[in-house]
Amino acid sequence: MDKRPIGVFDSGLGGLSTVRAMKKLLPCEDIVYFGDTGRVPYGTRSNETVETYAAQDIKFLQAFECKMIVAACGTVSTAAANVLAGTKEPSTGIAKPSAKAAVSATKNKIIGVMGTSATVNSKAFDNEIHALDNGARVVSVSCPLLVSLVESNWISIDDEVTNAAVKRYIEPILDAGADTIILGCTHFPILAPIIQKIAGENVTLIDSGLEEARYVKEVLESRNLSNSDNHRGEQKYFVSDKTQNFCDVAEVLLGEDISEKCEFVDIFKVI
Questions:
Q1: Percent of the chain with pLDDT strictly greater than 90
Q2: pTM of the entire structure?
Q3: SS3 sequence, the chain?
Q4: Which residues are tagged catalytic?
Q5: CB 112 within 8 A of CB 176
Q6: What are the residues whose beta carbons fall under 8 Å from the beta carbon of 131, sequence distance 6 or more?
Q7: What is the dihedral of CA 62, 31, 149, 173, to 10 degrees?
Q8: CB 114, CB 194: distance < 8 Å
């Protein structure tokens, strides 16, 4: 039994898709979440900037003596993979678990990847997929606008602007004949109903947050780091900008009001 919390971070609120899955798969685990809402998005930044932000975010979470660090952020998982790999605690991003799920799901070996500019440019998903199946074809598309739409709570399945953006972004993937699409940014599973509607029922969507949560469960169990089954997991949320919008969207995604669990933190004063 290990009572220490799991530390999860993202550039904003997209990582809540990972938290949502972790709450279901790991109900006994405590979670400390940091959303860097004051500096979102990460996906349009240089690799050097992303690495700096990631190192600061990790340092903040390490103050809680977390037993595992989870980068619930596609950009950090790919553009700052070396920073994540250097933690003293077990850590993970979304690329490897999502690639594994996609290779298992595809029937025609054509896999689409929706990500931020930094993620697509890193080719991390391409590399992970080809390591598992060198014959697979990967079609990656940068979708930077989607992060801002999610952060602005434009997530309704009928939202005309978001639907138009998704349709434009995934057109090259569908034209290529992909039967599987990795939602390579944890913001994107929040838009899964819209993406599925446009892609069609015959296309399998890989929820990066869910696959990451499954991997976290595997790591904790394999290393005997799981908490007691008698413990009810609790969550704490920290953001680097005002909490209101974050809490509003979180209530929709998590099905609970987290306003009393969410605090503003000045990241520059605590690292």
A1: 96
A2: 0.92
A3: CCCCCEEEEECCCCCHHHHHHHHHHCCCCCEEEEECCCCCCCCCCCHHHHHHHHHHHHHHHHCCCCCEEEECCHHHHHHCHHHHHCCCCCEECCHHHHHHHHHHHCCCCEEEEEECHHHHHHCHHHHHHHHHCCCCEEEEEECHHHHHHHHCCCCCCCCHHHHHHHHHHHHHHHHCCCCEEEECCCCHHHHHHHHHHHHCCCCEEEEHHHHHHHHHHHHHHHCCCCCCCCCCCCEEEEECCCCHHHHHHHHHHHCCCCCCCEEECCHHHHC
A4: 73, 185
A5: yes
A6: 99
A7: 90
A8: no
Task: Record the tokens describing residue 270, joined without a space.
Answer: 């605590």
Task: Tell me which residue of 175, 217, 240 sits closest to 40, measured CA to CA.
Answer: 240
Please, what sign has the CA dihedral across residues 151, 156, 157, 158? negative
pLDDT digits (tens, 9 = 90+) for 16-75: 999 999 999 999 999 999 999 999 999 999 999 999 999 999 999 999 999 999 999 999
- Whether the link from the prior residue into 27 is cis, omega within 30° of 0, is no
